[in-house]
Amino acid sequence: MKRTRTVLVTGGAGGIGRAVARAFAARGDTVVVADRDAQRAMDTAHGLGVHGRILDITDEEAIASGLDAVQDEFGPIEVLVNNAGLLTVHGTLLELAGGDLDAILRTNVLGTFLMTQHTARRMVASGVAGSIVNLSSIGGRQPTPGMGGYESSKAAVDALTRWAAIELAPHGIRVNAVAPGPVLTETVSAGMPEGSPQRRAWEGRIPMQRFARVEDVAAAALFLAGDTAAHITGTSLPVDGGQLLT
Ligand SMILES: NC(=O)c1ccc[n+]([C@@H]2O[C@H](COP(=O)([O-])OP(=O)(O)OC[C@H]3O[C@@H](n4cnc5c(N)ncnc54)[C@H](O)[C@@H]3O)[C@@H](O)[C@H]2O)c1
């Protein structure tokens, strides 16, 4: 019989986060979507029939009080999906402003670290053998000109995944990442419409010749978080249609 878990999805009001929340909810889990965008967090929660919370993952005090409140209401968090990220700020090495790189790293690296640390502390204190899934990117392993700031942050997320995995294994807590190539969220679809030269050029880099659907990414997160992945920890699983092979 499936166990119902309390699952927290950061950035749960965004394109991938919403699909991840929907997948866990469909399994019967108690899902909390946490996002810094208050209106979209509440709209998403309402639309999916899950719970919504306002949370900025770069605000340590808000994380501590937010996690306590979730735990008080729904019991210990068993699954954390570190999905919130900043992926729209880009620039070449010669041009990217230092302040922009700082903002990328603050959300994608510091935010993911703080969420992992504060959630893992609570898992350890409650004796919960939980699971953490981070949203990385194959960009952390394969460069695309103009995207190096973002890609550096995702390489750090992969390192953070391995760091957390090796230190939390003695507590029975597993930590993995999903590393997509381009994913068909509303933002990506609007920026690269089907048939556009930019979209066709990128699809040409992908052996499976298409972008990932949000459901492809959600399925990988669900798998890594669950009992069928019980002996998998510290990995970053590409969901990229084979792009890393090229
Ligand atoms: N879309 C892609 O092609 C793609 C590819 C590889 C990896 N990813 C990763 O997947 C994750 C989700 O991406 P997406 O495409 O759904 O992005 P999105 O912009 O649609 O959603 C991101 C969500 O995170 C929230 N967020 C941003 N900063 C936050 C903060 N400080 N605190 C709380 N919430 C915050 C935003 O409000 C938004 O709802 C990101 O980590 C991204 O880097 C996306």
UniProtKB/TrEMBL annotation:
The keyword Oxidoreductase applies. CDD domains: SDR_c. The keyword Ribonucleoprotein does not apply. Keywords: NAD, Oxidoreductase. It comes from the Bacteria. Transmembrane segments: none annotated. Residues 5-181 form the Ketoreductase domain. Signal peptide: none annotated. NCBIfam families: PRK07231.1. Belongs to the short-chain dehydrogenases/reductases (SDR) family. This is 3-oxoacyl-ACP reductase FabG. It comes from Streptomyces sanyensis.
